[in-house]
Design brief:
about 575 residues; mainly alpha; Fumarase C, Chain B, domain 1; Fumarase C, Chain A, domain 2; three-stranded antiparallel β-sheet; two-stranded parallel ribbon; 23 helices; about 10% strand
């Protein structure tokens, strides 16, 4: 297994963070960092003992109890009581990968050397990660201000031997799990309980995990956009690279470039490139403006990831230790330059993270809404370029069509899921509720927002899966038809009787509803889509969602499609033809 070294001067990447979350990497504390931590711990211990001054986190109570002095013999008990009393989370337990990421991020924050903790604290977190002893952490209960106090306290609870953990795929009392693993519980020292729960690593972990997941959905939607454009006989011109240089938003350039490349070498696109083939002038916005729409999502994700990675590699504690360098006369101040300046500030506040998590919520909702608009068009025979009502198989008899719903109902499910996105998208970070007797009078509410974000990702993937189900059926129908429909009237100079054209078309496509006046005939070669589109189509049709000829239950197949998209398997296929580089 690969190893990740936590070093106070080296940043974690998103790939490193996700890999540790999935237990694909062992974690090690750098020797230089361990030495630094011991030096700074000794500095602050000496200062507190010799100066005998009030110091929040060291010899005073917490929150609005900051005015209460604590006796020397009670200092370690103060830290333990903090963790015990603050472990009050409720709701379902967070996913294992989220808790692992949270632990890694807290270890990284403490390893920066500004918290004044012993290296043993970080080493214990690392030991839990490497033995895969993962605390059970209720999702709800944090207001995301003085850190994610409750979720982080549940993690700290396990470190000191209390609560429950997941170990070897079994939920156990922490003491039982530690005994099985041969691991000892941590004994907290001065300031260390506070150091464990003052930060927003829980919401940040969810945000970083979401960045990776939503970027998969964004790229997948670009793939599906290229396929929808081809099956709906749309042009590729709205995605031309030089066209987007005229309005050079980075996200739109990126999304348009992906869609453009995915549509190249498409025979079905080439056969209607001339205007006089199908008379197409403009497509609905869900295709014509897709690059601008999805490009905005790309920028939201990129911006969020940048901020969340800054947070992941920052010191987020209270108080923070800084060099005692504000004394000019070093001969009179033996502590000058040592990390003993105790600064109470707001580096644990969650608003910088909460705002970016909402960015991700916006991106997710926009992707889902766009995918849904395509499903609306697919079932509408007046707008789907002669693919028929509800994408029913066109060669059914009139009697069979009368008793068939085809793919009608999937649009309803998609609409319901879009409404779920809207309901979940409440901007919680804008609704402040004062806590702690007004001491903490402005809170971020980012953790609840992050929980809802993770719950919403699978719903968006399901909307995209419904779009892909429609898309696969539409491609099959398009390949089965012999003509491209045209809305261009036949000139009066043409002597052929127009009714005979309609009659011939209806003979070739039994019972197929048609209002077009003229048809452009396709060869089998003309019916091919771009190589990446054909590869996705074949994989879906062959193994996940076969053609709907007669009515059938489709729920399980659509769920499988959603998992297939979320896992990145679609992108693995398209990357063999068109790698979608960030």
């Amino acid at each position: 297994m690969k190893k990740l070294i936590i070093h106070h001067q080296e940043d974690l990447s998103l790939n490193d963070i996700i890999s540790v979350g999935r237990h694909q990497m062992q974690v090690i504390l750098a020797v230089e960092t361990e030495t630094l931590l011991r030096q700074r711990r000794q500095q602050i211990e000496n200062f507190i003992q010799e100066q005998d001054t009030p110091a929040y986190g060291f010899n005073r109570g917490f929150g609005h109890n900051v005015d209460l002095p604590v006796q020397a013999e009670d200092l370690t008990k103060l830290q333990e009581n903090l963790i015990l009393s603050h472990s009050v989370g409720v709701g379902d337990h967070a996913e294992k990968s989220i808790v692992r990421i949270t632990m890694l991020l807290r270890a990284k924050s403490l390893a920066k050397g500004y918290s004044g903790v012993r290296p043993e604290l970080i080493l214990k977190i690392i030991e839990f990660l490497n033995f895969d002893i993962i605390p059970l952490v209720p999702q709800l209960g944090s207001v995301g201000a003085s850190g994610d106090l409750s979720p982080l306290s549940h993690i700290a609870l396990a470190l000191i031997g209390h609560g429950k953990v997941l170990f070897q795929e079994e939920i156990l009392e922490t003491q039982e799990a530690l005994k099985k693993a041969g691991v000892k519980a941590l004994k907290l020292a001065v300031k260390e309980g506070l150091a464990l729960n003052n930060g927003v690593q829980f919401m940040n972990a969810m945000g970083l995990f979401a960045c990776q997941q939503i970027r998969v959905l964004l790229k997948s939607e670009c793939v599906q956009t290229s396929m929808v454009a081809q099956v709906m006989l749309a042009p590729d011109m709205p995605y031309r690279p030089d066209f987007h240089q005229v309005r050079p938003h980075p996200g739109a350039i990126k999304a348009a470039g992906w869609i453009w490349e995915l549509m190249q070498n498409s025979p079905i696109r080439e056969v209607h490139r001339r205007y006089d083939i199908d008379g197409q002038i403009q497509d609905p916005y869900n295709l014509r403006c897709a690059a601008q729409i999805l490009g905005a999502c790309a920028e939201l994700i990129d911006d969020a990831e940048k901020t969340l990675l800054i947070e992941a590699n920052s010191a987020t504690d209270n108080p923070i230790l800084m060099p005692y360098s504000n004394r000019m006369d070093e001969t009179q101040d033996r502590f000058s330059g040592e990390y003993v300046e105790i600064i109470s500030g707001g580096h644990f506040h969650g608003m910088p993270v909460a705002v970016k998590i909402y960015h991700l919520f916006q991106a997710l909702s926009i992707i889902g809404n766009l995918a849904h608009q395509r499903t609306v068009r697919f079932v509408d025979q007046a707008k789907n370029k002669r693919l028929g009502r509800d994408l029913k198989w066109p060669f059914l008899s009139d009697r069979q069509k009368a008793i068939s719903s085809g793919m009608m109902m999937l649009e309803y499910t998609s609409a319901a899921l879009v409404n779920e996105l809207w309901a979940a998208g409440t901007p919680s970070h804008l609704f402040n509720i004062s806590t702690n007797s007004g001491q903490e009078d402005h809170v971020s509410m980012g953790s609840g927002l992050a929980v809802r974000l993770l719950q919403t990702i699978p719903k968006t993937a399901h909307i995209q899966a419904i779009e892909l189900a429609y898309l696969t059926q539409a491609m099959t129908i398009r390949k089965a038809l012999k003509f491209i429909p045209s809305e261009i009237p036949v000139p009066s100079s043409v002597s052929q009787d127009l009714s005979s054209i309609r009659d011939k078309y209806q003979r070739d496509h039994i019972g197929f509803e048609i209002n077009a006046i003229r048809q452009y005939q396709l060869s089998e070669a003309d019916k091919q889509f771009s190589p990446s589109s054909e590869a996705v189509y074949e994989a879906v049709k062959r193994s996940i969602f076969p053609t709907v000829v007669e009515d059938r239950m489709m729920a399980d197949q659509v769920c499988n499609l959603a998992e297939w998209i979320s896992s990145g398997q679609m992108l693995m296929i398209t990357d063999k033809h068109v790698p979608l580089r960030d």
